[in-house]
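User: Hey, quick favor. My workstation is busy. Could you predict this chain's structure for me?
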Amino acid sequence: MGSEIRKLWAIFLVCAMAAGTGLSFSGCSMLGFGNEDEEVDTLDNELGSDQADAKDTKNAKGGKGEARSEAKAGDLQSEIKDLTEKQDETQKKIEGLEDTISSLESTLKSLQDSKREVESKLNEMKVGSGGASNGEVGKLKEKLAGLQDEIKEMKMRTTEKKTERDYKKTRVSSLDGVSVRKSYDKAVQLFNARKYEDALDTLKEIEGRNAPDDLADNVSFWIGQCYYKLEEFDKAADSFQNVVDNYPKGNKIHDSRYMLGLSYSALGEKSKAIEALQNALDERPPSAIRDKIKAAIRDIE
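Assistant: No problem, here it is.
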C-alpha cells in the first residue's frame, strides 16, 4: 500500500513539474494535468478593445493610462509631421524634375523635327536635278550627324531624369505608407486615451487616403468603435457591416460581427441584434469572442 502511494506521489510531482514548464506527459492525463488548447481574443489589447479597455481602466488609476496614451499620440504626431515635411520636400523635387523632363522632351522634339527636315532635303537632292554641290550635301550630312548625336544625348538625359523622378515617386509612396501607419497608431493611442472624436477624425483621414489593404478593415472597425463609444450606434453599425461585407477574411471579422450585434441592440433593434450575434456565433469565432457573444445574446433575450 505504501509503495502504491509513493508511486502516485512520484507521478504527481512529475506532472506538476511538467505543467509548470509547459511540457506534457501522457501519463499525467489521469491526474488532470497537461496542456489545454488556448484561443486568443482577436481584439488587440493595445488597440482599446472592450477587454483591453477594462484592463486599462483597472490598471490606470487616476487616468495615468490615458495620459500615457495621449503622450504617445503626441510623439506620433511629431513623427508624422517630420514624415509630411519629407514628403513635401520630395514632392517639390519631383515637380522640378517634371518641369526638366518636359523641357528636355520639348527640345528633343525640336531636334527630331530638324533631323527630319535635313533628311528630307538630302532625299530631294538625291532625287532632284543633281544641281546640288558636293559641299552642300556634305554640310547637310554633317548637320544630320550632329543632330543625331544631340538627339542621342537628349534621350539619355531624359531617361536619367525620368528614372530619378520615378525613384522619388516611390520614395513619396513609401513615406506615405509609413505616415498612414503612424497615423493609425496615433488614432489607436487617442482611442486608448478616450479621445474618441480625435481618434475618429484621424481614422477618417486615413480612410480618405485609401488605407493599405492590410489596414483597411482595421480602420473601418475602429471607426465603428469610435462611433459606438460616441453613442452614434447607427453609424457604428454601418462601419461594422462594412467590415463584414468587404473584409470577410480580415482579422477584424469576428469582432465586427459581435459589435454589429451590440450596435443593433443599442439601437433597440432586438431581432437584428440576435440575428447578427447568432450569425457571429455560427462562424465559429475564437473562444473569448464566443463567450462574449453568448453573454450578449442572453442579455438581449
